[in-house]
Amino acid sequence: MKELSTQLGVDVSIVIPVKNGRRHLAEVLDAILAQRSPYRLELIAIDSGSTDGSLDLIRSRPVRLLTIPSSQFNHGLTRNLAIEKSSGRFIVLLTQDATPVGDSWLETIVRNLEDETVAGAYGRQMPRPDADPITKHNLENWITGRADRRVNAMGSEEYQQLQPYDRYLRCYFDNVCSAIKRSIWERFPFPTTYFAEDCEWGKNVLLAGYRTVYEPQAAVLHSHDRTALYEYRRTYVCHRRLQELFELRTIPTRLSLFRAFISECRNHARILRDNGAGVFRLASIPAFALASTAGQYFGAAAEILHKPLPRWQV
């Protein structure tokens, strides 16, 4: 791997927002430091109030540490702040629990940016070996779990003709593992928002005439076994933003909510039975199915009705 540097002449700045990320942070940082790449690097962590020893862990490695109060964290602005403090012509964004797979991950995702028409690229997400069967199934069947590379391009006229869900799929971008050009970011910084700063950025650069790339050969280990409450809250804010950005409402009525809940229960039961899940996990199916479907319904409805944002954040 090329020497880490905080001096001028850096090719790639790797930015990681951190808050109480000690569980996976050491392996994430070590995987970055083990990369074989022609690029001159700097590694920046921006912490928003960790209390679990993450700060000591970061200081034990060649990482530039920035800190902000937890009250100032914002998915868009916090990333912008770290990028402002960086110097690379390419910016790689990771989360604190996304572990690069293999020693060519960095070169693989960044080389997409050598194309002058490409504004950004995002990588594949693979479930951790101990992930819950439903988590594995959902991740492997989502956009970032697929094995085919895709290049996205779209003009404003085409965008207007697409259905809301197709707009979302075309504009999708994911800062769990992404790479963007500084020159494009200077024109299109991440928006000030409580969620989905990456998808909004993807939409903005596509409508400006640039392309984005899904690069499955640049993979990270990244999955969560969430509680039902957290699943509801995350789904709620996600679908509130999808309504705002793309006019997408996946579950528009209470009748469709009921039908989606029954369907989700059946799907979860099938997946868990196929994987030999125990009785306790099977008993949790209704709670998680309700969290997912109700989050979709109430999140989009709240945006349509312009209800105040909830106090909690994800």
Describe the protein.
Strands 1, 2, 3, 4, 5, 6, 7, 8 and 9 form a nine-stranded mixed beta sheet that branches. By secondary structure, this protein is of the alpha/beta class. The chain has helices at 22-33, 54-59, 75-84, 105-110, 133-140, 156-161, 164-171, 182-187, 197-207, 228-246, 254-274, 279-283, 285-304, and strands at residues 12-18, 41-47, 64-67, 90-94, 99-100, 118-126, 150-152, 177-181, 211-221. The relative contact order is 0.13. The longest helix is centred in the last third of the chain and has 21 residues, at 254-274. It folds into two domains: 12-221, Spore Coat Polysaccharide Biosynthesis Protein SpsA, Chain A; 228-304. The protein is globular. Helix 1 (22-33) links the parallel strand 1 and strand 2 (41-47).
Brief overview, please?
This protein is of the alpha/beta class and 314 residues long. It has helices at 22-33, 54-59, 75-84, 105-110, 133-140, 156-161, 164-171, 182-187, 197-207, 228-246, 254-274, 279-283, 285-304, and strands spanning 12-18, 41-47, 64-67, 90-94, 99-100, 118-126, 150-152, 177-181, 211-221.
Helix/strand layout:
Layout: E1 12-18, H1 22-33, E2 41-47, H2 54-59, E3 64-67, H3 75-84, E4 90-94, E5 99-100, H4 105-110, E6 118-126, H5 133-140, E7 150-152, H6 156-161, H7 164-171, E8 177-181, H8 182-187, H9 197-207, E9 211-221, H10 228-246, H11 254-274, H12 279-283, H13 285-304
Parallel strand pairs: 1-2, 1-4, 2-3, 6-9
Antiparallel strand pairs: 4-8, 5-9, 6-8, 7-9
Helix pairs in contact: 10-13, 11-13
